[in-house]
Amino acid sequence: MNWIITNIKWIMVISGVLTSTMVYAALAPDAALQSNFGETVDAPLARMIVRNWGALIAMVGAMLIYGAFRPAARGLALSVAGASKVVFIALVLSEGSRYLGQQVGIAVAIDSVMVLLFLAYALSASRHVN
């Protein structure tokens, strides 16, 4: 697990860049929903919520990138991003296999790896401090 501590900066940068790509949902909500979930929404309120969702996810990605270069912010960035990803994974999985065949299934897999890396870093870092 020492390699995670050594490479956390780049793990966070890569995770942050991948997470930030969801700014796409803020810019093109219908296209983002279609490409990720295979569905669209027609209501203006739903589009606004999807745009907000995309913007918030992009901000989490930016926070990961910021934390990569600011060690004092790493704990908060990793905690918020990890919690956000766990909630997303749980929500997608709560629908069973309905969306897993879509692009969002890949996102669930990648986010799961990110969460495991973030958790491994937190555990390894706490052992290094003690």
**What is the number of domains?**
1
* Class by alpha and beta content: mainly alpha
Query: Whole-Å distance between the termini?
Result: 15 Å
What general outline do the C-alpha atoms trace? elongated
Topology, number of strands: 0
Order of helices and strands: HHHHHH
Query: Sheet with the most strands?
Result: none
Number of helices: 6
DSSP strand (E) fraction? under 5%
Percentage of residues in helical conformation: over 70%
Task: Name the poorly predicted regions.
Answer: none
Q: What is the typical, i.e. mean, pLDDT?
A: 94
Radius of gyration: 16 Å
Folded structure, characterized:
The chain is mainly α and 130 residues long. The chain has one domain. Helices cover 82% and strands 0% of the residues. It is built from 6 helices and no strands. The protein has helices at 2-20, 23-27, 29-37, 44-69, 74-93, 103-129. The longest helix has 27 residues, at 103-129.
Attribute tags:
130 residues, 82% helix, mainly alpha, single chain, 6 helices
Furnish the topology, listing elements before pairings:
Layout: H1 2-20, H2 23-27, H3 29-37, H4 44-69, H5 74-93, H6 103-129
Helix pairs in contact: 1-4, 1-6, 4-5, 5-6
Task: Summarize it.
The protein has helices at residues 2-20, 23-27, 29-37, 44-69, 74-93, 103-129. By secondary structure, it is mainly alpha-helical.
